[in-house]
Amino acid sequence: MGNDVGLSPDTSILTHGYWMSVLEGYPATFSGVTIGDGVIVGYKSLLMMGVSITDNVVIGANSTVTKSLQKKGIYAGTPARFIKEITPLSYEERVIKLNEIIETHYMPIAKYHGINPNIKIEYPLIELNDFRFNVETFEYWGIEDEETDDLRDYIRKWGIRIYTERPFTSKF
């Protein structure tokens, strides 16, 4: 299994398949499963014996992988089949997406939590109070507080992994 792999709940990885005796003519299969770096396996998916999954693959929920997946991308279904490529966003698209995450999605949650953060975005940097972090390098500077924890923890839900010295759960 590679680095940065996410196995959702109820994922099954089979490395052997048999039930009845091979001495009575029933088949038996034994083979490992190889999972590359940056793979995400969706809820209740099944990886069958002998498959190899290349780096940077997303497998949709309730999928069954019966053959090796050799191309980066998104796969789903039973059996799992290629759905679409994963294409990195352009700089302009990243700026738009980050602003959407903060303005459209996070700010209503912050309001619900009873805070009105003054967030400054100068891509790739986000600044709140005396705390700054870089959404590309995941570096951070400054003083954390409950408001910065709330923003940091929300950003993580979008796969922007800012890990600091403070606990993962905000107090709001």
In short:
This protein has 172 residues and is α/β, with parallel strands linked by helices.
Can you describe what's shown?
By secondary structure, the protein is α/β, with parallel strands linked by helices. It has 2 domains: 79 residues, UDP N-Acetylglucosamine Acyltransferase, domain 1; 66 residues, no CATH class. The protein contains 2 helices and 16 strands. A 5-stranded mixed beta sheet has the order 1-6-9-11-12, with no helix packed on it. It has a 4-stranded antiparallel beta sheet with strand order 13-14-15-16, with helices on one face. Strands 2-7-10 form a 3-stranded parallel beta sheet, with no helix packed on it. Helix 1 packs across helix 2. It is elongated, with a radius of gyration of 21 Å. 14% of the residues are buried. The mean pLDDT is 94.
